[in-house]
From TrEMBL:
Domain of life: Bacteria
PANTHER family linked: ABC TRANSPORTER, ATP-BINDING PROTEIN (PTHR43335)
InterPro entries the UniProt entry points to: AAA+_ATPase, ABC_transporter-like_ATP-bd, P-loop_NTPase
Organism, as annotated: Actinomadura algeriensis
Protein name from the UniProt record: ABC-2 type transport system ATP-binding protein
Classification via SUPFAM superfamilies: P-loop containing nucleoside triphosphate hydrolases
Stretch list, region Disordered: 227-248
Name of a matching Pfam family: ABC_tran
Length: 293
């Protein structure tokens, strides 16, 4: 597997607080990777480290084979759209495109102007007069026209209404299909990630809790319901992600690569949202499970 991002023992500390801790991760190239976690989990910190906007307190990170922001050539390989989809309110769309061309050696002006035309935007219009969805599309256009090998999107649709969010994600998927690059998309909206992502990383309590291809994650997680039982009595290959109990019944969400033979259990499938929530709710004292391969 070729990795577009590799982290080894990566950590970032602000004062006495670790925003990201002991992050070891391989993000495969050529995928649309969803990064999900609760507020304060470390998502923006990880992406800012990947974009070279922050330096690690400990550990190492490489992005598309180099150290983040290490020179003009490395900067050209990575596109970054922040959560507030930054644009310059007083500049027109045309001025944004001219600025992009001056700052980016791989700039594809034809791609940028074609996309603006397909969106029905007026090149003479100032960014400050655009709707939130239109500003997000302009920011995405600037990121795409940079022709990066990796495009990093930090919750770019968080403030958009459902229609604008759908249009943004549709535009992203069309661009991925046409130009073949890697994407890391951070969001707290699992339904959006389920729509566009084929690989998932869950961050919680400043650590990676699980990572893997979405299909593999779904296939390897199960909900077990049956007579009350202590988690310690489950087979060693059934790793407990979450558990709940009544006086007579136990319910476990487990990860296992093997079959479940115990006839006492009713085995149910787990949806992506339930899987993500289970990892987000894991107790901090529990060690993260190994990534699904």
């Amino acid at each position: 597997m070729t990795a577009v991002l590799q982290a080894r023992g990566l950590g970032k500390k602000y004062g006495k607080r670790w925003a990201l801790s002991d992050c070891t991760l391989d993000v495969p190239a050529g995928r649309v990777v969803g990064l999900v976690g609760p507020n304060g989990a470390g998502k923006t910190t990880l992406l800012s480290l990947a974009a070279g906007q922050l330096t690690p307190t400990e550990g190492e990170i490489t992005v598309v084979g180099g150290r983040p922001a290490n020179g003009r050539e490395q900067l050209a390989k990575v596109g970054f759209v922040a959560q507030d989809t930054p644009t310059y309110a007083r500049l027109t769309i045309a001025e944004h495109l001219r600025l992009g061309a001056r700052l980016n050696p791989r700039w594809d002006d034809e791609l940028a102007r074609d996309r603006i035309a397909r969106l029905g935007l007026d090149l003479r219009q100032r960014a400050g007069r655009l709707s939130g969805g239109q500003r997000a599309q302009l920011a995405l256009t600037l990121g795409l026209a940079k022709r990066p090998e990796l495009l990093i999107l930090d919750e770019p649709v968080a403030a958009l209404d459902p229609l604008a969010r759908r249009e943004f994600l549709q535009g992203l998927m069309e661009a991925v299909a046409e130009h073949s690059f890697s994407v890391i998309l951070s969001s707290h909206l699992v339904s959006d990630l389920e729509r566009v992502c084929d690989h998932l990383v869950v961050l919680a309590a400043s650590r990676v809790q699980v990572a893997g291809d979405v299909d593999d994650l779904i296939a390897s997680h199960h909900r077990l319901s049956g007579p009350r039982r202590d988690a310690a009595r489950l087979p060693d290959d059934q790793h407990v992600v979450s558990e709940s109990h009544t006086d007579r019944q136990s319910t476990f969400l487990v990860r296992t690569d093997g079959p479940i033979h115990d006839p006492a259990w009713t085995v149910g499938q787990v949806g992506l949202e339930d899987l993500v929530l289970a990892y987000m709710e894991r107790k901090p004292e529990r060690a993260p499970l190994e990534a699904v391969r």
